[in-house]
Specification:
The complex is a heterodimer.
Chain A (H helix, E strand, L loop, with lengths): L2 H5 L2 E10 L1 E11 L4 E5 L6 H8 L7 E6 L2 E2 L4 H5 L2 E4 L11 H11 L4 H14 L15 H13 L5 E5 L7 H16 L3 E5 L3 H7 L2 E6 L2 E6 L1 H8 L6 H10 L1
Helix pairs in contact in A: 4-5, 4-6, 9-10
Chain B lengths: L6 H14 L11 H24 L4 H32 L3 H6 L5 H33 L8 H27 L1 H23 L1 H4 L2 H11 L11 H6 L3 H28 L1 H4 L19 H14 L4 H8 L3 H8 L11 H23 L3 H5 L5 H30 L4 H21 L17 H22 L11
Helix pairs in contact in B: 1-5, 2-5, 3-5, 3-6, 3-7, 5-6, 5-11, 6-7, 6-11, 7-14, 13-16, 13-18, 15-16, 15-18, 16-18, 16-19, 16-20, 18-19, 19-20
Classes of the chains: A alpha/beta, B mainly alpha.
Chain lengths: ~250, ~475
């Protein structure tokens, strides 16, 4: 195993997937522990497909994926045990309460019961769900559902978080809170990869940004590096993004 | 064909959506072959019945009583189904919201929905009752065709009453409890009708005769009380009056509800603040199995129709209890074995279908560090456990009253349990209505095969305990 594969949080090499047409092609990606990586791209660029392959939910046609040294293809369960995946649509059971949902998720990830209970209580309180902890999720708003699944993603303290549009449905205060929670996780050594169409969020939050188009990585780096790559001396991430993806 | 956004245009859209969501479209063609065969058999039986009816004509008062009773049964069953459909229409926040966000007049949306519900609740009975009506019409008894408009009118009346009831109930107890009330109503109606059908078994003959006589309209009393029955028998004025009653009821409910529906007052009732939630959950588990097991049991326990559907299936227990209690004099105790084996199979199929169908987030478990087979086992064990818990009391009854039957019964139950759990996992029966924009799961094939497998195992068990189970057919 290469040294990079063991020291990096995520190493993707030559990743490819096609559904009749090529959705992801020859993708290389490296993310380090503590890094907050934003994967951007226009609709149909292959962002969600890439995240689903990394999460072990879809087998790639080509390439390799290592998460903290664990081969996602050869040892999917080992890799999943340190990952959390948050899709763009909340994966929730309408007929369970948030507490029961967290109980289920904690069980799946084998979190020690006492620890899981403490974490669940902390997360529900922090996310403002404590008064609703015993209500069924069926009556929740989109934002409350999103916060519940976020709590589920964090209850097993994953080392690697895959977040597909995590701020959808959240109000401003909740979005800020979630950003802080994710940054805290990153500062503790976890790696975070997120997709978003809100470029301001990516600009302020991400340590590094990757721009995907047509299933391939167009450019990667911080804002200054992207500006350089695009040949734009100044301008926001939005300007750079539009310039690169229009080319 | 029709102007966009007009009433018939919207009604056609509604029919198309109902048809696209129909189980028939999601079923493989060859599964429909046995269904068609049963349909033809049914029509053949109807022809025999029709010839008997013509050969042995009944007095008008008895005909009216029969028609009235049928109309009553149809109405209560239609009403229970219409209540569930009305709740879905008004409170499921699916395409109703989508339509209401369009420039179509809300009152038109409500009217189309009410007529759509009326058509969907009356259609099965039109198919069923239509077989006999068609057969009678073949024998030139054209009055029987009045069943079609009468059932449509009943559907319209049931839909109108259901919409009015649902709005009152939701405003009073909230949509979840209102939905449960709809299912409970369906259950009470079903049990009532079953109990009435079983009346000859538990009521002495004289008492039964008195009961029917009390319901029989006298020759002089063929007036308002028998209006609908006479309408069903094709008498023109009662038929016209019955149809008018249904249309007037529909218009009255539509006029009353239409304005409240348009103003959003009806849908606002669904957003009442939640009451005190009962303390639940919080028992965290160290390993995935109990977590998966508990999750599945919770999903099953909270499935909206779990009580009514389980009780419906468990009606098989009524003859079992009567046989074990010695109340059925011409029934042999061996008959409880096939009945219980069949019930086990049906419950197992239902429970596993609920668990598979209720799993709204299969990808959550797929992203967890557990093997796929493990999750499958969690659902299968939970469904098996639930089935066995329900079957334990009748098993105990057999142990106490006919212990010699227990080995065959236990073996038959084990076989049907394993078979139907595996079958239901692969092919869940259709239970859950597809949400707007989502495909529903469940297949008619699972239902047909499940009943077939349950029947096969129960027949095998029956043959083991009673080598000539149909001998009574040949006793004079």
């Amino acid at each position: 195993m290469h040294a990079e594969q063991t020291s990096a949080a995520l190493v993707v090499r030559g990743l490819g997937k096609s559904f009749g047409r090529k959705v992801v092609e020859g993708l290389d990606l490296t993310i380090h522990p503590g890094e907050f990586y934003a994967l951007l791209g226009p609709n149909g660029a292959g962002k969600t497909t890439t995240l689903r392959m990394i999460a072990g939910l879809m087998r790639p046609d080509a390439g390799s994926i290592h998460v903290f040294g664990r081969d996602v293809l050869a040892d999917p369960l080992g890799a999943k045990s340190i990952m959390a995946w948050l899709p763009d649509e909340p994966l929730l059971y309408d007929r369970l309460s948030p507490m029961e949902y967290l109980e289920f998720v904690a069980g799946l990830w084998r979190v020690e019961p006492k620890l899981a209970k403490d974490r669940a209580e902390t997360l529900l309180e922090t996310l403002g769900l404590w008064p609703h902890r015993h209500e069924r999720c069926e009556g929740f708003s989109r934002g409350m559902k999103q916060k519940t699944v976020l709590a589920g993603a964090l209850i097993h303290e994953p080392k690697f978080l895959l977040l597909d549009e995590p701020f959808t449905g959240l109000d401003a205060a909740s979005a800020r809170l979630v950003k802080q929670m994710l940054q805290t996780r990153a500062e503790a050594g976890a790696a975070v990869i997120l997709t978003t169409h809100i470029l301001d969020v990516a600009e302020r939050l991400a340590t590094r940004i990757g721009i995907l188009s047509g299933g391939a990585l167009l450019a990667e780096g911080d804002l200054a590096a992207l500006q350089l790559h695009a040949g734009v001396s100044a301008g926001s991430l939005e300007d750079v993004f539009l310039h690169l993806t229009a080319a | 064909m029709f102007a966009p956004a007009s009433f018939p245009w919207l009604f056609l859209h509604e029919l198309r959506v109902l048809w696209r969501g129909s189980i028939l479209l999601r079923t493989r063609r060859y599964v429909l072959i046995p269904v068609l065969i049963v349909g033809f058999l049914f029509q053949a039986i109807a022809l025999i019945l029709a010839s008997q009816i013509i050969r042995h004509p009944l007095p008008l008062s008895e005909m009216v009583l029969i028609a009235n009773l049928n109309l009553f049964f149809f109405f209560v069953l239609m009403l229970s189904r219409a209540m569930t459909a009305a709740i879905d229409t008004l409170y499921s926040r699916g395409d109703a919201d989508f339509l209401l966000a369009s420039p179509i007049r809300p009152g038109r949306v409500l009217a189309v929905r009410m007529i759509g519900v009326a058509a969907s609740v009356s259609a099965p009975w039109m198919l069923l009752g239509g077989a006999l009506a068609n057969a009678l019409a073949i024998f030139r008894q054209f009055w029987a065709l009045a069943i079609y408009p009468m059932l449509l009118a009943e559907g319209l009346a049931a839909a109108s009453v259901a919409f009015a009831l649902v709005v009152v109930l939701v405003g009073w107890v909230g949509p979840r409890i209102a939905r449960r009330a709809g299912h409970t109503l369906a259950l009470v109606m079903g049990v009532f009708i079953f109990a009435l059908g079983q009346a000859p078994r538990y009521l002495p003959a004289q008492q039964l005769a008195r009961f029917w006589k009390s319901l029989l309209p006298s020759e002089q009393g063929l007036g308002v009380t028998s209006l609908f029955g006479r309408g069903m028998l094709g008498q023109p004025w009662p038929l016209a009056a019955s149809l008018s009653c249904a249309v007037l009821l529909f218009l009255a409910v539509w006029l009353v509800l239409g304005e409240r529906f348009a103003s959003g007052a009806i849908s606002a009732a669904a957003y009442r603040p939640a009451g005190d939630a009962q303390a639940q959950g919080g028992a965290f588990r160290a390993t995935p199995f109990p977590a998966v097991f508990m999750k599945n049991l919770r999903l099953l326990a909270r499935f909206p129709g779990v009580v009514s559907q389980t009780v419906y299936r468990s009606l098989t227990l009524v003859p079992v209890v009567m046989i074990l209690a010695g109340r059925i004099h011409n029934g042999t105790v061996q008959a409880v074995v096939p009945l219980l084996v069949f019930l086990t199979g049906q419950l197992a199929l239902f429970f596993i279908s609920v668990m598979v169908g209720s799993d709204e987030s299969p990808e959550l478990a797929a992203s967890a560090p557990v093997a796929a087979g493990f999750l499958r086992r969690g659902a299968l064990y939970a469904a098996g456990y639930s089935t066995l818990m329900l079957m334990a009391p009748p098993l105990l009854g057999v142990l106490l009253r006919a212990g010699a039957l227990l080995p065959v019964l236990a073996a038959g139950m084990a076989c049907v349990l394993v078979s139907n759990l595996a079958l239901g996992f692969k092919m869940p029966i259709p239970l859950i209505k597809a949400e707007f924009g989502k495909a529903g799961n469940g297949t008619l094939m699972g239902l047909v095969l499940g009943v077939g497998v349950s029947s096969a195992w129960s027949l095998a068990a029956w043959l083991l305990v009673a080598p000539h189970p149909f001998a009574w057919l040949f006793v004079k």
